[in-house]
Design a protein that fits this description.
It is a single chain. This protein is α/β, with parallel strands linked by helices. The chain folds into 2 domains: 98 residues, Helicase, Ruva Protein, domain 3 (Orthogonal Bundle), CATH 1.10.8.10; 201 residues, Rossmann fold (3-Layer(aba) Sandwich), CATH 3.40.50. It has 11 helices and 9 strands. The protein has a 7-stranded mixed β-sheet with strand order 5-4-3-6-7-9-8, sandwiched between helices. Helix 2 packs across helix 3, helix 3 crosses helix 5 and helix 7 runs parallel beside helix 8. It is elongated, with a radius of gyration of 23 Å.
Length: 316
């Protein structure tokens, strides 16, 4: 028993030395606990984050630099960064203090329980969009083989989450940007989703003659003059994936008008939109003859996703 304890301690000390070779020199490296305290306060002041969110962000930056888990940071708060690690950490911290989104700094973001690579070429997946995935999955019958289309796929978060959950579904994901599609392709390989076809297309332009049972999208829906485009994370995200005309509905109008030509009878169109766009969007769907028009609320109680289906006795 004593020998086992001694050996365990030796292994832990070896791990600590491997991660922090300069730990014995506090003058040359900052202790983890000190960094968490002082830099958490800096993030709170610069970005207006609450204390809990700021602490988590500092921990994630340290994890990135050290290549360790959050549990390690909590277990060894007295450990110090060596000079190279401290320099790398400071670079990341300055990027964050300047407002750059954490997802771009780390190069990834969690969505629907999966990890997605993101770059400044793609939108950052957000928790609100998980509602769209949930609504789409609810409209896929068990053990069915159907075709689904994701318009403006970005990092592939929506399409790949659905494809991962339902490997029996044939998923097509399109985007007008080749750079964005390259990111989605890397995510598809990482998630081993073999049931996804990625295609460069400006909405429906490359899909002539194709029909689907389900079409989903998180399109641009912010008004061109909206002040939020110059604030927070949105400053760093691709504007073409955010803004859409004077009222933010230009691309939604294109999608609603074009989707019926690509939906089978009984097929659904579902898409995300802005917090104040549900009513005009529902009216747009009705004008184009969609049935069972609906809007669904996110966890904050905001009508975030709307859609409708093609009547079973009528296909455009």
């Amino acid at each position: 028993m004593g020998a086992c304890i001694i050996e365990t301690c030796k292994n832990e000390r070896a791990t600590i030395r491997a991660v922090n070779p300069a730990r014995a020199d506090p003058d040359q490296a900052a202790r983890l606990q000190s960094l968490l305290t002082q830099d958490k306060a800096a993030l709170e002041a610069s970005l207006g984050l609450d204390s809990g969110a700021a602490r988590i962000e500092i921990q994630m930056l340290l994890q990135q630099v050290l290549g360790v888990s959050r549990a390690y940071l909590l277990a060894y708060p007295e450990q110090s960064l060596n000079e190279a690690q401290a320099a790398a950490y400071r670079t990341l911290l300055q990027r964050r203090l300047a407002g750059e989104p954490l997802a771009y700094i780390l190069g990834e973001r969690e969505f629907f329980g999966l990890t997605f690579r993101v770059t400044p070429a793609t939108l950052i997946p957000r928790a609100d969009t998980e509602l769209l995935v949930e609504l789409a999955l609810a409209r896929i019958p068990p053990h069915s083989v159907l075709r689904m289309l994701d318009l403006g796929t970005g990092s592939g978060a929506i399409a790949l989450s659905i494809a991962h959950a339902r490997p029996d579904v044939e998923v097509t994901a399109v985007d007008a940007s080749q750079e964005t599609l390259d990111v989605a392709r890397k995510n598809a390989r990482h998630l081993n989703t073999g049931n996804v076809r990625l295609l460069r297309s400006d909405w429906f332009s490359a899909l002539t003659g194709e029909r689907f049972d389900l079409i989903v999208s998180n399109p641009p829906y912010i008004a061109d003059g909206d002040a939020h485009l110059a604030q927070g994370d949105l400053r760093f995200e691709p504007r073409a994936a955010l803004a859409s005309g004077a009222d933010g509905l230009d691309d939604i109008r294109r999608i609603v008008a074009g989707a019926k030509q690509h939906l089978n009878a009984g097929g659904w169109l579902l898409f995300e939109h802005g917090y104040d766009q549900a009513e005009p969007v529902r009216e747009l769907l009705r004008q184009h003859g969609y049935a069972e028009v609906l809007s669904a609320r996110d966890l904050a109680g905001i009508e975030r996703v709307s859609g409708g289906c093609v009547a079973t006795d009528s296909v455009a």
